[in-house]
């Protein structure tokens, strides 16, 4: 029996709806689950202890999968952060949630932009869970990612 608590697609969808309502991003277009099977896959896979034996591995897979797989029609990155925070909370890591949310705001953008691999995300999340903050090495690595992201935005011609 696993020592972790999990949640299902219906709870994830409730959190997604809250994200959309709070952010005001529902502009009248169809909002909801775009790929329920991808959502259920992410939520089921984190329960496999052989693949995801501890909190950093489980949380990394959850956040990465939701941010990258576009389970929802809108708000995937925001929902990845919220579901990660919820997973931390129900498993007794609620004290880490404020720091997790702040750090993940940019990092999840970089995950979606293919600048942060799943392995790098694991290092970041492991730092947050084990150290309560990012290590100096991780922070230095993120500086380079910030520069790469800025370059990506400039090259795209977007005015962000």
How many distinct helices? 7
Can you tell me the CATH class? Mainly Alpha
Rg measurement, Å: 16 Å
User: H/E order of the elements?
Assistant: HHHHHHH
User: Could you name the CATH topology?
Assistant: Four Helix Bundle (Hemerythrin (Met), subunit A)
The CATH architecture category equals: Up-down Bundle
Describe the fold and architecture.
With 160 residues, the protein is mainly alpha-helical. The chain has a single domain, classed as Fic/DOC protein, Fido domain (Four Helix Bundle (Hemerythrin (Met), subunit A), Up-down Bundle). The chain is built from seven helices and no strands. Helix 1 packs across helix 4, helix 3 crosses helix 5 and helix 5 packs antiparallel against helix 6. It is globular. The termini are far apart.
What is the compact description of this entry?
With 160 residues, this protein is mainly alpha-helical. It is 66% helix and 0% strand.
Helices and strands, with pairings:
Layout: H1 9-23, H2 36-45, H3 55-69, H4 76-90, H5 97-112, H6 118-130, H7 136-156
